[in-house]
Amino acid sequence: MIKVQTINSNPITFVHHLYIYKHTHTHHTSSHPKTTCPTLTPPTTMSQWSDTNHRSPAPPPLLITLILTLTLTLISIHPSLAWRPWPHTHNTTNLQFQTSKKFEGSSEFVKLRYHMGPVLTANITVHIIWYGTWPSPHKRIIREFINSISATTVRTPSVSGWWKTVQLYTDQTGSNISRTVTLGEEKNDRLLSHGKTLTRLSVQSVIKAAVNARTKPLPISPKNGIYLLLTADDVYVQDFCQNVCGFHYFTFPSIVGYTLPYAWIGNSGKLCPGTCAYPFAVPDYIPGLKPEKSPNGNPGIDGMISVIAHEIAELASNPLVNAWYAGQDPVAPVEIADLCEGIYGTGGGGSYTGQMLNDRDGATYNMHGIRRRFLVQWVWNHVVNYCTGPNALD
């Protein structure tokens, strides 16, 4: 549910787990894990909408056709839809919950609910699989972002301040998502064990190889581990660059041997920076639009950071796709980062990213991390019912 919009005449989108991923979530094929998952048992009942639309006169035939088309489209989407950083003409929130009446994605139509599944309340450990060739400077940027999530001595607005919104989500016992997120073990797959082109299911096979490796296998942590498969800029993953910059789900015991929450995010630097690294790159079909300067000197990696943040936030709040999400269908949930597609600051919403920060060197960002600056999308705050972030001006 990612769509293209304009920001002061400049297009943006509002990306995964997928964008919206904001992200317009992508359509998924019949081989998608969601359609074959033997372990997930989603809720079978959900509260129904009670707004006045239910009492409206019968819609005309054309409207019925449009509704049926949209319904079939949503059914084909993966539950942890892909994410891309700039929104389409109508963002995901608008599509599912009508047009927002306030800034920062606020809407009385958003019905984010808890569906009784687990969230990550134990200290979270992020394990990384570097798939393909990864230069050390690129790895450092990503490591320092992950380490910044729990860093408390960083100047504001900070990445840890952003994570405080994610921490608001609780499980059945009232326990909050953990404040602590640490970088765990790493595995290099430089030789591309499963080739330069991956499907959604072969992504799980890469994870299987990493946790079952003969030397230095990744630890198996089903309760508090997050597994990130990060692909290099010359690796193509199914649906990548076609509204998908990343996605999250959980591994199938039939493939990996365990149920492990994981996410895939690709480096779009060579393949499609205008799609997945906006606003640090712009689409070729938009002449005259200048990209923003990336805070760490690498548009592809800086573009990945917000997608990584998006996926980690949703893995923490919806690891088995049966916890926190909005929408009436668990097959196509809208999660806490999806609801804030393309919003990076105060005033964001609709076609505007919000007010971001510009440093003396011209770089654009909205929060500080350990020794670095980052641009990270906001997430939905279910307490106040709108998107929030650490760089808010009000």
Walkthrough of the structure:
- There is one protein chain.
- It contains 8 helices and 17 strands.
- The chain has one domain (4-44, 60-388).
- The longest helix is centred in the last third of the chain and has 19 residues, at 299-317.
- It has a 5-stranded mixed sheet with strand order 5-4-7-10-9, sandwiched between helices. A two-stranded antiparallel sheet has the order 1-2.
- Helix 4 runs parallel beside helix 8.
- 53% of the residues are buried.
- The protein is of the alpha/beta class and 394 residues long.
- This is EXORDIUM like 3.
- It is found in: Secreted, Extracellular space, Apoplast.
- Residues 32-45 have a biased composition (Low complexity).
- Keywords: Apoplast, Secreted, Signal.
- Belongs to the EXORDIUM family.
